[in-house]
Amino acid sequence: xxxxxxxxxxxxxxxxxxxxxxxxxxxxxxxxxxxxxxxxxxxxxxxxxxxxxxxxxxxxxxxxxxxxxxxxxxxxxxxxxxxxxxxxxxxxxxxxxxxxxxxxxxxxxxxxxxxxxxxxxxxxxxxxxxxxxxxxxxxxxxxxxxxxxxxxxxxxxxxxxxxxxxxxxxxxxxxxxxxxxxxxxxxxxxxxxxxxxxxxxxxxx
Length: 205
Hints:
Helix content is 26%, strand content 21%. By secondary structure, it is α+β, with helices and mostly antiparallel strands. The strands form two sheets. Strands 2-1-3-4 form a four-stranded antiparallel sheet, with helices on one face. A two-stranded parallel ribbon has the order 5-6. α3 packs parallel to α6 and α4 packs across α6. About 3% of the residues have low confidence.
């Protein structure tokens, strides 16, 4: 059972558990996938300007959802609201409700950094860190304290899933800036996959 997070008088971030309710095996999936995330009456504002109005969406387990619309219609703004990246934009605010496994990610006491760990994001333009290819992928697991049995295997797995391993396996210690634009974007996808998020948001990657 999910409980509302406790709120201290100082409004310090509390540890909130987003417990998945879906089956662990693909062959046990229901015909209608269980909701992993839901948006209810979501509006996004920049100051007084309302950029996104009245969004109601359900994102199911193991589903791929595409947001399609003309340039400037609010697709990126909505995506950023799904993992609280808009918190970092001065004047941006979100109304309505966005939930992960039934828990409101904007509820008081919810740690925005934990939300972003569980809901990863790949941006429209590649943004590799000024590090080696290997360290770009290993950075996230190290920062959040993941303890894989083998970091080398974790890096290889993430790069393989991002269709980049065969191109970089012999130059993992080289700078990520030496890769082509497309390779850098796939590296950013691998970096996101490495921390094993429950949801991945992709802004035209």
